[in-house]
Amino acid sequence: MSLSRQWRVLLLGLVSLAAVGLLVTPGIRYGIDIAGGSRVVLKLEASQATIQLTTPIVGDNYAPLEEIAGLIQENLLTSVKVVSLDRTANTAIFEIGRPVSSDLINSIISDKGQVISVEEGISSRTRDEVTNLLQTRVDPAGLLGVQSRPMGANLVLFEVPAMDPERAKALLGQTGRLEAFIENTLVLTADDIEQVGSIIIRETGGIYKYEVSLRISEEGANKFAAASQGKGDYPFAIYLDRPDDAVLLFNNQLLTNMPAGLTYDNTTRTFRIATSETHGYNLLVPSIPISKGNLDNATLQTIQEMQVTKSRAIFLGLVTDFSENVTGSVKTIFTENRVEYLPKESETETTTSWLQRACGLQSAPAISPSIAGVAARDVEITGSRGSYESAEREASDLKTILSQRLPVKVSFEGESSIPARLGSEFAFEVVKAAIAAVIAVGVLVYLRYRRPLIVGAIMLTMGGTLLITIGIASGLRQTIGLPEIGAILAVIGTGVEQQLIITDEVLRRGLPQAGPRPVSLSGRIGKAFAIVFAVAATTIAAMATLFFVGYGAMKGFAIIMSVGVLVAILVVLPAYGKIINAIVSREITKAEKTQAKAAQQ
Amino acid sequence: MDITWHTKHLKPRQMIAIPLVLAAFFAAVFFVRGVPMSIEFSSGSMITYRNLENIPNADAVESALRSALTAEVTAVQTQDLATGTFGLDIQTTKALDDNGKELVQRTMADQFGIQSMPEFYSIEAAISQNYLRGAMLAIIGAFIAMFVIVFLVFRHKIVGAMLPCVALNMVWALGGLALLQMQFSLASLTGFLLMIGFSVDTNILLTTHVLKRVGGEPRERMANAMLTGFMITGTSLATMICINVLVTNPSITQLATVLTFGLAGDLFNTWFLNGGVLVWHTERQKRKEYYVSL
Fold it and tell me: Which pLDDT belongs to residue B94?
């Protein structure tokens, strides 16, 4: 057979080689069962506020409920849902997407109602919603195989295989609550974002600056136009997850040693960052200077007053940076687990960027005079990092977080790594079983066809399918866990099936009353392929549905199975057809020769 | 032994009856015995130990608590990423009341010398009702997609008979799980998905031969396809048996059990049920032609 007619066989060889390459780099990514991973416990910090309504609900008129929900939503910039309504008692339970106190809610709703109680807790519907969003954040394509399960009243346990814990934390821990201010006026919120656009990364002098573009709704653009009228060159301060429920406590030594451009205002209790000689912006989280050793009465009173509207305290620094005396008295005000510490990221972090980070300030670009007062629909969030990779990762995480915003605030309860559940013993058993299965299939095939060459061809192409499928899976960065091993088994199984269908068609000696004339060898292969294509099309249709409708484990299965079936139908089986053709036609020529010889004699 | 005997001697109605009776048997087994749900699919409790000095073997903890609680238990060693200390996460399908909690603590203290107080949480199914609903939708969607494709390929509504056959394989597999009291887990769910792929193959093989080929009687063509089909299912079954015998991991065993029963069911559901329907259809078609030609 000439080389040109063997291109299918060549293609199989080349693709197998490429697959070996993919297995070397990037290599197989194993699932949590095989390689271990991390467990992250998240707390979903929603509150359930029971409110006595001033105006009773009559019939279908739910306006009083909507009014209260609207007020809370506007003031706290968080999602508010009515979970239940008791018409006889005239009370309703509102689910609020962050921790709140009764005083805070009472001050917001004023005469519209009276708060009866506030409890921590989340409805199962909201919990499912949040869990799904978080799952999409860490595992958008379902390639990673993240598993989650609800735990306790408001906890969710996530199992994430092979992911940098810091990254998992960044993706799981942020709510995605965006706010943009011009002077202390809130101009845009996350609700005004219509679409999160593309990422641009630029390098200037070793610093990589990234830009994530946001498309703003028309309404948002109008708000921007009104607020930015005549405010050219003013900073446009964009916050992500501003800790508006917290008060910052910092060592008062900081004030004696302020970097240029940073000032502290004692009356508003906020820091101010100057962006030019005439302009600047306030960091909109109340910050209170405290002495390291002990709290004087005035400070203590201020903190106590803060506790009415704020539900947690964040110390700027490590636990050890403040005396036990200080942390102890703050803990008695806010309770033990509502006190947090936020140290500098590294020694080189400037005080200004530390404060910006603590306040959730993402960027503060100056409004270009040409767009001030104009209904601009595109806004960029910027940031900079030391390397291209970290800039890209941060930008894409930011994009993910803004695209999958959470209706409730989340916080970390714990994080631990877990070992592989299926140990090395398992791998050994699988290899043993695989060898046994290959032998068993080989024996069966031999018993049926009695031709060692065909057994060899089937085994060889089966190996090819396996190799290429796993290679492509590595290339796709698909995690190989238990469901995927199942899919690989299925790929091998269906691959062998299809080879058997082709072989049977080719070797068929014709039926007793076969058609008007015998079908040629290539015609028989063509007929076999008709069946094989129908089978492949059905399998892919089924798998595509599983991929789009199913979750996690089903997605991984569907991806591997579709890849395997495509590999089989496009690369492996055409080559197998050629090989079997060669084997059979050689047999036919041999048989004809012996026949001819016999005839001669 | 002639495995294609029935294709020559049975009436379509008889062919169809055999798999239906068998499927009814497996359905009955499923409804009577039920299938236990694995830890992923059921709610229960999570027990977490932190800051342990000596971490016991997770397998030993599993078996000790399994017999103490008489419920499914999985244990895993953890290492806290912030502090680097070790701990244990134990999950069980049992909702622990105060007695149960005490029992866990006593077992851990007596058998492994762990005196520290664990945290107890109630946990809900990892595969939530939502997820299950999604999975169901996905499987139904997959069936519809398959129907559309086979319909496009064969352009005849009789091929719709293929889908109940695939569905009946699932009944066999569920009955098999119930018979052996094996758990329905994520792994067995994978097995079900796998089975869809396998069983469609044999049905398409059969349908192509009976409906699309020329030459010979439909029954002969079916017998011919059946030889290939048995070979196909035979190789798959051989693989599953190897896996069942050699791999001790429960997940893999669950997956293989589903497939073993499903494939065994496929032998009947394809070659008797779908085969019977197709033979009935082609023979009736022939009679019609005969009357028309008269």
Answer: 86
Question: How many CB atoms sit inside 10 A of residue A501's CB?
Answer: 27
- A130 to chain B, closest Cα gap in Å: 13
For the purposes of burial, counting CB atoms within 10 Å of the CB of A88, is it exposed (0-12), middle (13-18) or buried (19 or more)? exposed
Q: What is the pLDDT of residues A283-340, one digit of tens each?
A: 999 999 999 888 889 899 999 988 888 888 999 998 888 999 999 999 998 888 788 8
Identify whether the C-beta of residue A477 lies closer than 8 Å to the C-beta of residue A26.
yes
3.30.70.260, 3.90.950.10, 3.30.465.10, 3.30.450.40: which CATH number matches B44-123?
Answer: 3.30.70.260
Q: For residue A552, give the chain B residue with the closest CA.
A: B131
Contact B204 A538 (CB under 8 A): yes
Give the A:B interface size as CB pairs under 8 Å: 226
Strand partners, A26: none
User: Over 80: is that where the pLDDT of A110 sits?
Assistant: yes
State yes or no: pLDDT of A247 exceeds 50: yes
| B178 pLDDT more than 90 | yes
Question: Measured between alpha carbons, how far is residue B148 from residues A416, B139, B277 in Å?
Answer: 47, 14, 19
- Nearest C-alpha neighbor of A545 from the set B198, B143, B199, B128: B143
Amino acid A450: pLDDT = 87
pTM, to two decimals: 0.72
Most confident of the following: A48-62, B19-33, B152-166, B255-269: B19-33
Residue B68 contacts A where some CB pair is shorter than 8 Å: no
**Cβ of B95 under 8 Å from any chain A Cβ?**
no
Burial of A201 (0-12, 13-18, 19+ CB in 10 A): middle
Shortest Cα–Cα distance, A432 to chain B (Å): 7
| Domains defined along chain A, listed by start | 3-31+421-593 (1.20.1640.10), 42-123 (3.30.70.100), 175-405 (no CATH)
Are the C-beta atoms of A272 and A285 separated by less than 8 Å? Answer: no
Per residue in A444-473, pLDDT tens? 889 888 889 989 998 888 888 889 998 998
**How high is the ipTM of this complex?**
0.76
Q: How far is A30 from chain B (nearest CA, A)?
A: 16
Report domain extents, chain B: 5-38+128-293, 44-123
Architecture of domain B5-38+128-293: Up-down Bundle (1.20)
B190/A557 CB distance under 8 A? yes
Q: Quick check: A444 contacting B, CB < 8 Å?
A: yes
- Residues in chain B with CB shorter than 8 Å from the CB of A515 are 214-215
